[in-house]
Protein backbone atom coordinates (compact mmCIF):
# COMPACT_ATOMS: atom_id res chain seq x y z
CA UNK A 1 0.00 0.00 0.00
CA UNK A 2 1.38 3.43 -1.01
CA UNK A 3 2.12 6.12 1.59
CA UNK A 4 -0.65 8.31 0.16
CA UNK A 5 -3.21 5.50 0.38
CA UNK A 6 -2.17 4.77 3.98
CA UNK A 7 -2.64 8.44 4.90
CA UNK A 8 -6.07 8.51 3.23
CA UNK A 9 -7.05 5.33 5.06
CA UNK A 10 -5.97 6.78 8.40
CA UNK A 11 -7.98 9.94 7.72
CA UNK A 12 -11.01 7.82 6.85
CA UNK A 13 -10.62 5.70 10.00
CA UNK A 14 -10.33 8.85 12.11
CA UNK A 15 -13.85 9.93 11.12
CA UNK A 16 -15.31 6.40 11.22
CA UNK A 17 -13.86 5.45 14.61
CA UNK A 18 -13.11 8.64 16.58
CA UNK A 19 -13.31 6.73 19.88
CA UNK A 20 -10.44 4.42 18.94
CA UNK A 21 -8.22 7.34 17.98
CA UNK A 22 -9.13 9.11 21.23
CA UNK A 23 -7.91 6.04 23.13
CA UNK A 24 -4.61 6.16 21.24
CA UNK A 25 -4.19 9.85 22.15
CA UNK A 26 -4.78 8.90 25.79
CA UNK A 27 -2.17 6.14 25.56
CA UNK A 28 0.34 8.57 24.08
CA UNK A 29 -0.31 10.90 27.00
CA UNK A 30 0.20 8.03 29.49
CA UNK A 31 3.44 7.12 27.72
CA UNK A 32 4.82 10.55 28.57
CA UNK A 33 4.32 10.10 32.33
CA UNK A 34 7.44 9.79 34.51
CA UNK A 35 7.88 6.29 35.94
CA UNK A 36 6.88 7.43 39.43
CA UNK A 37 3.46 8.57 38.22
CA UNK A 38 3.17 5.55 35.95
CA UNK A 39 3.49 3.14 38.89
CA UNK A 40 1.15 5.24 41.03
CA UNK A 41 -1.38 4.82 38.24
CA UNK A 42 -0.57 1.08 38.19
CA UNK A 43 -1.31 0.77 41.93
CA UNK A 44 -4.75 2.34 41.42
CA UNK A 45 -5.30 0.18 38.34
CA UNK A 46 -4.45 -2.93 40.40
CA UNK A 47 -7.15 -2.34 43.01
CA UNK A 48 -9.66 -1.55 40.25
CA UNK A 49 -9.19 -4.67 38.13
CA UNK A 50 -8.70 -6.98 41.14
CA UNK A 51 -11.47 -5.76 43.40
CA UNK A 52 -13.96 -3.95 41.17
CA UNK A 53 -14.17 -5.44 37.69
CA UNK A 54 -12.30 -8.65 38.62
CA UNK A 55 -10.72 -8.83 35.16
CA UNK A 56 -10.93 -12.38 33.74
CA UNK A 57 -11.01 -13.71 37.27
CA UNK A 58 -12.41 -17.10 36.31
CA UNK A 59 -9.99 -17.57 33.39
CA UNK A 60 -6.96 -16.73 35.53
CA UNK A 61 -8.07 -18.94 38.43
CA UNK A 62 -8.85 -21.87 36.15
CA UNK A 63 -5.50 -21.59 34.36
CA UNK A 64 -3.61 -21.48 37.65
CA UNK A 65 -5.50 -24.44 39.12
CA UNK A 66 -4.64 -26.61 36.13
CA UNK A 67 -1.03 -25.44 36.00
CA UNK A 68 -0.44 -25.97 39.75
CA UNK A 69 -2.81 -28.70 41.00
CA UNK A 70 -0.61 -29.14 44.08
CA UNK A 71 -1.32 -25.61 45.33
CA UNK A 72 -4.06 -24.92 47.88
CA UNK A 73 -7.00 -22.59 47.28
CA UNK A 74 -5.26 -19.90 49.35
CA UNK A 75 -2.01 -20.26 47.40
CA UNK A 76 -3.90 -19.91 44.10
CA UNK A 77 -5.65 -16.81 45.47
CA UNK A 78 -2.35 -15.18 46.47
CA UNK A 79 -0.72 -16.11 43.16
CA UNK A 80 -3.65 -14.61 41.25
CA UNK A 81 -3.26 -11.34 43.18
CA UNK A 82 0.47 -11.25 42.44
CA UNK A 83 -0.35 -11.80 38.78
CA UNK A 84 -2.81 -8.88 38.82
CA UNK A 85 -0.13 -6.58 40.22
CA UNK A 86 2.40 -7.69 37.60
CA UNK A 87 -0.22 -7.39 34.85
CA UNK A 88 -0.94 -3.76 35.75
CA UNK A 89 2.76 -2.89 35.73
CA UNK A 90 3.55 -4.64 32.46
CA UNK A 91 0.48 -3.19 30.72
CA UNK A 92 1.55 0.37 31.54
CA UNK A 93 5.19 -0.39 30.80
CA UNK A 94 4.14 -1.59 27.35
CA UNK A 95 2.45 1.77 26.77
CA UNK A 96 5.52 3.57 28.11
CA UNK A 97 7.62 1.91 25.39
CA UNK A 98 6.19 4.45 22.93
CA UNK A 99 7.94 7.28 24.78
CA UNK A 100 10.86 5.38 26.36
CA UNK A 101 14.10 7.30 25.82
CA UNK A 102 17.45 5.72 25.02
CA UNK A 103 18.80 6.95 28.35
CA UNK A 104 15.91 5.30 30.23
CA UNK A 105 16.46 2.14 28.24
CA UNK A 106 20.12 1.93 29.29
CA UNK A 107 19.15 2.42 32.94
CA UNK A 108 16.38 -0.17 32.93
CA UNK A 109 17.23 -2.86 30.39
CA UNK A 110 20.21 -5.14 30.02
CA UNK A 111 20.94 -8.02 27.69
CA UNK A 112 23.02 -11.17 28.07
CA UNK A 113 23.87 -13.92 25.61
CA UNK A 114 23.74 -11.55 22.64
CA UNK A 115 27.36 -12.20 21.62
CA UNK A 116 26.59 -15.86 20.91
CA UNK A 117 23.37 -14.84 19.16
CA UNK A 118 25.26 -12.38 16.94
CA UNK A 119 28.05 -14.84 16.24
CA UNK A 120 25.79 -17.64 15.04
CA UNK A 121 23.39 -15.31 13.20
CA UNK A 122 26.29 -13.91 11.14
CA UNK A 123 27.82 -17.32 10.59
CA UNK A 124 24.56 -19.07 9.66
CA UNK A 125 22.82 -16.23 7.83
CA UNK A 126 20.33 -15.62 10.63
CA UNK A 127 18.67 -17.10 13.70
CA UNK A 128 15.22 -17.90 15.07
CA UNK A 129 14.36 -16.39 18.46
CA UNK A 130 11.51 -17.96 20.42
CA UNK A 131 10.06 -15.76 23.16
CA UNK A 132 6.81 -16.06 25.12
CA UNK A 133 4.34 -14.04 27.20
CA UNK A 134 6.50 -13.80 30.28
CA UNK A 135 7.54 -10.58 31.99
CA UNK A 136 7.81 -7.53 29.73
CA UNK A 137 8.12 -9.07 26.28
CA UNK A 138 7.42 -5.71 24.54
CA UNK A 139 10.62 -4.00 25.73
CA UNK A 140 12.68 -6.80 24.20
CA UNK A 141 12.22 -5.02 20.86
CA UNK A 142 15.24 -2.97 21.99
CA UNK A 143 17.32 -6.09 21.25
CA UNK A 144 17.85 -4.54 17.81
CA UNK A 145 20.39 -2.17 19.37
CA UNK A 146 22.46 -5.17 20.49
CA UNK A 147 22.35 -7.00 17.16
CA UNK A 148 24.69 -6.77 14.19
CA UNK A 149 21.87 -7.74 11.85
CA UNK A 150 18.18 -6.97 11.33
CA UNK A 151 15.54 -8.00 13.86
CA UNK A 152 12.17 -9.11 12.50
CA UNK A 153 9.41 -9.06 15.12
CA UNK A 154 6.48 -11.28 14.14
CA UNK A 155 3.11 -10.13 15.50
CA UNK A 156 -0.64 -10.60 15.15
CA UNK A 157 -2.23 -7.58 13.50
CA UNK A 158 -5.22 -6.01 15.29
CA UNK A 159 -7.51 -6.02 12.26
CA UNK A 160 -10.46 -4.41 14.01
CA UNK A 161 -8.46 -1.51 15.44
CA UNK A 162 -6.13 0.19 12.98
CA UNK A 163 -5.35 3.02 15.39
CA UNK A 164 -4.18 0.73 18.22
CA UNK A 165 -2.26 -1.50 15.83
CA UNK A 166 -0.38 1.51 14.48
CA UNK A 167 0.42 2.71 18.00
CA UNK A 168 1.88 -0.67 18.98
CA UNK A 169 3.80 -1.05 15.72
CA UNK A 170 5.42 2.37 16.09
CA UNK A 171 6.43 1.56 19.67
CA UNK A 172 7.98 -1.78 18.67
CA UNK A 173 9.87 -0.38 15.68
CA UNK A 174 11.34 2.66 17.45
CA UNK A 175 14.69 0.85 18.03
CA UNK A 176 15.10 -0.06 14.35
CA UNK A 177 13.58 -3.54 14.17
CA UNK A 178 10.90 -4.45 11.64
CA UNK A 179 7.45 -5.61 12.75
CA UNK A 180 6.06 -8.26 10.40
CA UNK A 181 2.52 -9.65 10.40
CA UNK A 182 2.34 -13.34 11.22
CA UNK A 183 0.86 -14.25 7.83
CA UNK A 184 3.88 -12.71 6.06
CA UNK A 185 6.57 -13.96 8.44
CA UNK A 186 7.74 -16.98 6.43
CA UNK A 187 7.78 -15.06 3.13
CA UNK A 188 9.76 -12.11 4.53
CA UNK A 189 12.19 -14.42 6.35
CA UNK A 190 12.96 -16.40 3.21
CA UNK A 191 13.40 -13.16 1.25
CA UNK A 192 16.13 -12.09 3.67
CA UNK A 193 17.59 -15.58 3.60
CA UNK A 194 17.74 -15.58 -0.24
CA UNK A 195 19.57 -12.23 -0.22
CA UNK A 196 22.16 -13.62 2.20
CA UNK A 197 21.26 -10.87 4.65
CA UNK A 198 21.48 -12.16 8.26
CA UNK A 199 18.24 -11.64 10.15
CA UNK A 200 17.02 -12.64 13.60
CA UNK A 201 13.35 -13.64 13.50
CA UNK A 202 11.66 -13.09 16.86
CA UNK A 203 8.41 -14.90 17.56
CA UNK A 204 6.13 -14.95 20.62
CA UNK A 205 5.54 -18.63 19.95
CA UNK A 206 3.19 -19.51 22.83
CA UNK A 207 0.20 -17.86 21.12
CA UNK A 208 -2.97 -19.93 21.04
CA UNK A 209 -3.18 -21.70 17.68
CA UNK A 210 -6.38 -22.94 16.05
CA UNK A 211 -7.76 -26.34 16.99
CA UNK A 212 -6.96 -27.48 13.44
CA UNK A 213 -3.21 -27.11 14.11
CA UNK A 214 -1.17 -30.26 13.51
CA UNK A 215 0.98 -29.56 16.57
CA UNK A 216 -0.60 -30.41 19.95
CA UNK A 217 1.44 -30.93 23.10
CA UNK A 218 1.13 -30.80 26.88
CA UNK A 219 1.89 -27.35 28.27
CA UNK A 220 1.51 -26.61 32.00
CA UNK A 221 -0.51 -29.81 32.55
CA UNK A 222 -3.00 -29.14 29.72
CA UNK A 223 -3.23 -30.00 26.05
CA UNK A 224 -2.44 -26.97 23.91
CA UNK A 225 -2.22 -26.24 20.18
CA UNK A 226 0.91 -24.58 18.80
CA UNK A 227 1.61 -22.82 15.51
CA UNK A 228 3.88 -25.00 13.34
CA UNK A 229 5.44 -21.97 11.57
CA UNK A 230 8.39 -21.31 13.93
CA UNK A 231 9.76 -24.85 13.86
CA UNK A 232 9.12 -25.24 10.12
CA UNK A 233 11.04 -22.03 9.37
CA UNK A 234 13.88 -23.21 11.62
CA UNK A 235 14.11 -26.60 9.89
CA UNK A 236 13.83 -25.08 6.41
CA UNK A 237 16.64 -22.56 6.99
CA UNK A 238 18.62 -24.70 9.46
CA UNK A 239 19.27 -21.50 11.40
CA UNK A 240 20.01 -21.84 15.13
CA UNK A 241 17.07 -21.47 17.50
CA UNK A 242 17.50 -19.29 20.59
CA UNK A 243 15.26 -18.90 23.63
CA UNK A 244 14.46 -15.56 25.27
CA UNK A 245 14.15 -15.45 29.05
CA UNK A 246 12.93 -12.09 30.40
CA UNK A 247 14.06 -11.67 34.01
CA UNK A 248 12.50 -9.01 36.23
CA UNK A 249 15.21 -7.25 38.24
CA UNK A 250 12.86 -4.74 39.84
CA UNK A 251 9.91 -2.59 38.97
CA UNK A 252 10.49 -1.50 35.38
CA UNK A 253 13.92 -3.14 35.21
CA UNK A 254 14.65 -6.24 33.14
CA UNK A 255 17.37 -8.50 31.87
CA UNK A 256 16.80 -10.32 28.58
CA UNK A 257 18.81 -13.51 28.48
CA UNK A 258 19.39 -15.47 25.26
CA UNK A 259 20.38 -19.13 25.26
CA UNK A 260 20.85 -21.58 22.39
CA UNK A 261 17.94 -24.02 22.22
CA UNK A 262 18.78 -25.93 19.03
CA UNK A 263 22.01 -25.55 17.04
CA UNK A 264 21.07 -27.34 13.79
CA UNK A 265 17.28 -27.76 13.65
CA UNK A 266 17.34 -29.50 10.24
CA UNK A 267 19.05 -32.47 11.89
CA UNK A 268 16.31 -33.16 14.46
CA UNK A 269 12.58 -33.76 14.30
CA UNK A 270 10.36 -30.66 14.41
CA UNK A 271 8.48 -32.15 17.35
CA UNK A 272 11.71 -32.24 19.34
CA UNK A 273 12.21 -28.51 18.72
CA UNK A 274 8.75 -27.78 20.07
CA UNK A 275 9.23 -30.02 23.12
CA UNK A 276 12.51 -28.27 24.01
CA UNK A 277 10.77 -24.91 23.75
CA UNK A 278 7.87 -26.03 25.97
CA UNK A 279 10.19 -27.54 28.57
CA UNK A 280 12.18 -24.31 28.74
CA UNK A 281 9.03 -22.22 29.12
CA UNK A 282 7.74 -24.44 31.92
CA UNK A 283 11.09 -24.28 33.72
CA UNK A 284 10.98 -20.47 33.67
CA UNK A 285 7.28 -20.17 34.55
CA UNK A 286 7.56 -22.45 37.58
CA UNK A 287 10.34 -20.26 39.00
CA UNK A 288 8.15 -17.12 39.14
CA UNK A 289 4.66 -18.09 37.91
CA UNK A 290 3.08 -14.69 38.58
CA UNK A 291 4.97 -13.24 35.59
CA UNK A 292 3.22 -15.39 32.97
CA UNK A 293 0.15 -14.07 31.12
CA UNK A 294 -2.49 -16.19 32.87
CA UNK A 295 -5.34 -13.94 31.67
CA UNK A 296 -4.71 -15.17 28.12
CA UNK A 297 -7.21 -17.84 27.00
CA UNK A 298 -4.33 -20.10 26.03
CA UNK A 299 -6.15 -23.38 26.49
CA UNK A 300 -9.54 -22.49 24.99
CA UNK A 301 -9.45 -25.12 22.22
CA UNK A 302 -9.95 -28.87 22.54
CA UNK A 303 -7.80 -31.30 20.60
CA UNK A 304 -9.87 -32.85 17.77
CA UNK A 305 -10.19 -36.59 17.66
CA UNK A 306 -7.55 -38.22 15.50
CA UNK A 307 -4.89 -35.58 16.12
CA UNK A 308 -1.92 -37.09 17.92
CA UNK A 309 -0.48 -35.49 21.01
CA UNK A 310 3.28 -34.85 20.76
CA UNK A 311 5.08 -36.72 23.51
From TrEMBL:
GO terms for biological process: glycolipid biosynthetic process. InterPro entries: LipA_acyltrans. GO terms for cellular component: plasma membrane. Its main location: membrane. Coiled coil: none annotated. The keyword Glycoprotein does not apply. This is Lysophospholipid acyltransferase family protein. It comes from Draconibacterium halophilum.
Amino acid sequence: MSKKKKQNRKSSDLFKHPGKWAVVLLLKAIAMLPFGFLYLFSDVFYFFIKGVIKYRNEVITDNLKHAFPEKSKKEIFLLRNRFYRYFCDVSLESIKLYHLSEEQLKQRVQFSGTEKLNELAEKRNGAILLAFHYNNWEWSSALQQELRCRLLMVYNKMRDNEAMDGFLQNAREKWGGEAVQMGRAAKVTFQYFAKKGPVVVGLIADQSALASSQMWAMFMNREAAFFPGPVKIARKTNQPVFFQHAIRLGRGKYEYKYTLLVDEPAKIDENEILIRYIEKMEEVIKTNPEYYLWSHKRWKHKRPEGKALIQ
